Amino acid sequence: MLKWLIVLVATVFVIGLLQPRLLQLGRLPGDLRFRLRGREYSFPFASVIVFSLVAAFIGWLL
Predict the structure, then answer these.
(1) C-beta separation of 48 from 32 below 8 A
(2) pLDDT-derived band of residue 24, with 50, 70 and 90 as boundaries?
(3) 13: enclosing H helix or E strand
(4) 19 exposed, middle or buried (CB, 10 Å; 0-12, 13-18, 19+)?
(5) Looking at residue 51, what is its pLDDT?
(6) Which of 4, 10, 18, 32 could bridge to 43 as Cys pair (CB 3.0-4.6 Å)?
(7) Strands of 13-58, DSSP E
């Protein structure tokens, strides 16, 4: 169980690093971005749903 948790955290970390440069997610309708006091906040709701569907499909194939 702990091994899967470590793999999940590492995967989310790597995807978080690659996301702005390679995947270009976060620009789908339903993703919220706003600037407050000079800081930019992003809530990628639609991107998370799309990523979850893709991950579920890959898991189903395996």
Answers:
(1) no
(2) low
(3) helix 2-18
(4) middle
(5) 80
(6) 32
(7) 31-36, 39-44
- Whole-model pTM? 0.53
Here the tokens at position 51 are: 């990523």
**Among 28, 21, 52, CA closest to 42:** 28
What is the spatial distance between Cα 43 and Cα 31, in angstroms, rounded to a whole number?
6
Find the largest Cα–Cα distance for the chain: 46
Q: Give residue-wise pLDDT tens across range 36-51.
A: 888 888 777 887 888 8
Amino acid 51 reads F
Write out the two tokens for 39: 């800081």
How many Å apart are CA 35 and CA 33, to the nearest integer? Answer: 7
For residue 15, what are its two tokens?
């995807």
What are the structure tokens assigned to 44, written together?
Answer: 């990628």
